[in-house]
Amino acid sequence: MYRILYTDDGILCGAVAHSDAELIAACRDEIVRLHGGGTPLPEYFERYVAGLDPPNGE
User: What is the residue extent of each domain of the chain?
Assistant: First the structure.
């Protein structure tokens, strides 16, 4: 697993490799937990996107 590093301006500046199985499992479990609490895309789209004006190309 890699921890991606960015500058304060959001520019990629490196990565740190992690191989500890317990750390990787804990991170994977957290991602599964967060994903499970998210809004399904169709519901999100209806609530926040569908009513927006189309992009105007700017």
Answer: 20-51
